[in-house]
Amino acid sequence: MHRVLVIEDEAINRIILRQTLEQQGYEVTVANDGSSGLALAKTFKPALIVCDWMMPCLDGLAVCQKIKSDPALSNIFFILLTARNELQDRVEGLDTGADDFLNKPIQPAEMLARVRAGLRIYQSAQDLRSLTLQLKEQQQQLNEELAQAANYVTSLLPKSLSGKIDITSQFLPSAQLGGDCFDFYWLDDEHLVFYVLDVSGHGLGAALPSVSIQQVMRSQSLPNTDFYDPASVLKGLNQIFQMSSQNPRFLTLWYGVYCASDRMLTYASAGHPPALLVKPNDYIQPIGQSGQIPIGMFPDSSYQCSQCCIEPGSTLYGFSDGVYEIQLADGSCWDHSGFGNMLEGLHQTGPVSVSDVLNKIYHLQNIEAFEDDCSLIQLCF
Predict the structure, then answer these.
(1) What percentage of the chain's residues is helix, strand, coil (to nearest 5)?
(2) Directed axis angle between helix 354-365 and helix 336-347, to 10°?
């Protein structure tokens, strides 16, 4: 049963209030002045207080103000007991923090009705606080699980390579964790494969499929697929990764194979942002086409390969759209061409690392973290 605190300096009113409330099963304690009532509120921790307005030393308004300003007591439902009926008095009481009023002389039936109403409101607030706490705990647990998932995804990504081609990369998972994934490795002594993929959506529902696809690609277990042929890879993935009621996701993919002997890059894209090639003269060339159909949307989608000769001294960037889909201070969004212009200007100043690129984005766009997963691969030929 709820606890009720009565603060009243008139003895007869204290008796009436206490007996009436106890008859209804409430646990009641009383105080005969504001100071002792305030002290009791801290130890007795009532759900509701009935407090007389007019008391010597510390009146009801002062008690109410102190109760409502204390975070440990502010949720207590506070009823002011008063003979003052002027509108301005009620306004003053409400502004101070009172939740309800009870007129003198006391009418037991009305008093009990207001107490019951106040306790319903108090209980609803308690239930809401409890639910909020549960949600916070669940959110914290979810955040911890997403952080573990992000660490797992990161652990599966390739390390830097050096030799014929120097490759470095960076994966920055968002708070929600998305479907970004990438990989690069030598198919044989002459052919390097590298790709970036992005499964639609966020959370584990997007991250797990991207990891699964990475494992399929590494094991080269796609049936009837030539991994030296980017179009064949995209077609093979499209056959096994189709959207459905159980799998409402699609993915974008940029896939390239570089032949070191003739410096020829063969690539294909499925709805993924074009890679950007920085030539030795610092000119930026997009590698790929926008607007192509992502994987998983249509079972009969077809994909075509394109080729590009890579000059010595060139740098190629593959990335996810999280790198440049950033909302600017004026409400507009940065875009692919803006990212390309930034790369072009950055390379004109000298050698550029992946960290240089990310730091430049942070500085130019005045952001502390990316809203979406951010994947970036740099290949220096």
Answers:
(1) 40, 25, 35
(2) 120
| Distance between CA atoms of residues 285 and 104, nearest Å | 84
Residue 31 has pLDDT above 80, yes or no: yes
CB proximity list for 16: less than 8 A, separation 6 or greater: 106, 108
Number of DSSP helices (H) and strands (E) in the chain, helices first = 9, 15
Q: Which residue type is seen at 50?
A: V
Neighbouring C-beta atoms of residue 166, cutoff 10 Å: 13
**246: pLDDT strictly greater than 80:** no
Instruction: Provide the pLDDT for residue 46.
Output: 97
Reduced 3-state DSSP string for 280-334: CCCCEEEECCCCCCCECCCCCCCCCCEEEECCCCCEEEEECHHHCCCECCCCCEC
d(CA 232, CA 361): 35
| pLDDT of amino acid 93 | 81
From CA 37, how far away is CA 81, in angstroms rounded? Answer: 14
The amino acid that residue 66 corresponds to is K
- What is the value of pTM for the model shown? 0.70
Distance CA 323, CA 171 (A): 10
Cis peptide before 230 (omega within 30 of 0): no
**Is the separation of the CB atoms in 177 and 164 below 8 Å?**
no
**CB contact at 8 A, 171 and 198:** no
- Cα 50 from Cα 12, distance rounded (Å): 15
How many angstroms separate the first and last alpha carbons of the chain? Answer: 77
CA distance 20 to 261: 97
Instruction: Note the pLDDT tens digit of each residue in 137-177.
Output: 998 888 788 778 778 888 889 999 999 899 999 998 776 77
Which residue did the predictor score with more confidence, 370 or 26? Answer: 26
Hey, what are 126's tokens? 């308690």
Picking from 123, 5, 11, the residue whose alpha carbon sits closest to that of residue 63 is 5
Residue 209 has pLDDT above 90, yes or no: no
Predicted local confidence at residue 32, as pLDDT: 93
pLDDT of residue 179: 84
**Integer Cα distance of 211 and 215 in angstroms:** 6
